[in-house]
Specification:
Layout lengths: L21 E5 L4 E7 L10 E3 L3 H6 L7 E6 L2 E10 L1
């Protein structure tokens, strides 16, 4: 497994959401924090969402200040990205 591992260079653009980043999102009435992880590590109840989930896909490669809309079982959810860590 290590023989086929590929080193991923760190992303120097701190304002863009990437795998492993934590995104702080603002809705109309509150703030939510999510870390983008692979499917095997996902645990939405703890704030770890899969990069393959609707929210994860909507966040990837987006910048601080971007607004996103995600279709959820409860309807459309609107977020603004306020920070990336």
């Amino acid at each position: 497994m290590l023989a086929t591992a590929v080193l991923i260079e760190p992303d120097n653009d701190d304002d863009v959401v990437d795998l492993g980043d934590t995104a702080i999102l603002q809705t109309d009435d509150h703030t939510e924090t999510y870390t983008i992880v692979g499917t095997a590590e996902a645990d939405p109840s703890q704030g770890f969402i899969s990069n393959e989930s609707p929210l994860g896909r909507a966040l990837l490669n987006r910048r601080v200040g971007d607004e996103i809309t995600v279709q959820a079982p409860a309807g459309l959810l609107h977020f603004r990205i306020v920070a990336v860590r």
